[in-house]
């Protein structure tokens, strides 16, 4: 058996409620590491992942690490065994192959966990400035040293697929709040909404975190009602604004008709 572990700062502890309810429903032991620390950016926070996983292995041996906002839709299947990590679908090049938001590890994994942590610290990955990136902001974080560690030590990883936008995929992890018959874990991104001002980026968050097909939004905005609620989102048909229900109306955003492109290189 395994223990589900995650971590957060006090500002984000509320995000653990869904994960905790899933663990209770499925009968899984769980532990939330709450840190009294602030991180300057997302990359610095992601670089804390291997330290939390390492601590979880010491405390509980066999662990399933997930991000604080993740939801467990169905029971973890038997073929999920440590060492396990998810791979991005569609595939990406170089270190962007892996997404370390879901990792299974146990005490046999300590050598590569220690190497992962050592590389994060030796390369000062958690001290990078916001303008230090290759393709998009914060793209250099924990995953580059993760790839280096497991490659250098010849670790044979069990992998599960993570799909960012293909709702017909057989991937067992969905990046967002959509799901299909193959989905085991949902990895939402909706908590980024209040701080995101770019309307294109907001639309990307919508397409990932709207449970129904995003195309139905055009029909919703044509409703005779002034305010429409659908799948946890509110839509203002007069002002053409929208937002997740937990951030409505304080953080409503203007709808844009421009198409957006989701890529599995994004975090």
Topology:
Elements: E1 3-9, H1 16-26, E2 29-35, H2 42-46, H3 49-60, E3 63-66, E4 71-72, E5 84-89, E6 98-105, H4 110-122, H5 143-152, E7 158-163, E8 173-174, E9 185-186, H6 199-209, H7 217-221, E10 227-230, E11 233-236, E12 241-244, E13 253-254
Parallel strand pairs: 1-2, 1-3, 5-7, 7-8, 8-9
Antiparallel strand pairs: 3-6, 4-9, 5-6, 10-11, 11-12, 12-13
Helix pairs in contact: 3-4, 4-5
What does it look like?
With 267 residues, the chain is of the alpha/beta class. The chain has two domains: 3-188, Alpha-Beta Complex (Spore Coat Polysaccharide Biosynthesis Protein SpsA, Chain A), CATH 3.90.550.10; 194-254, no CATH class. Helices cover 25% and strands 22% of the residues. It is built from seven helices and 13 strands. The chain has a nine-stranded mixed β-sheet with strand order 2-1-3-6-5-7-8-9-4. A four-stranded antiparallel β-sheet has the order 10-11-12-13, with helices on one face. It starts with a strand and ends in a 13-residue tail after the last strand. The relative contact order is 0.13. The model has no long low-confidence stretch (mean pLDDT 94).
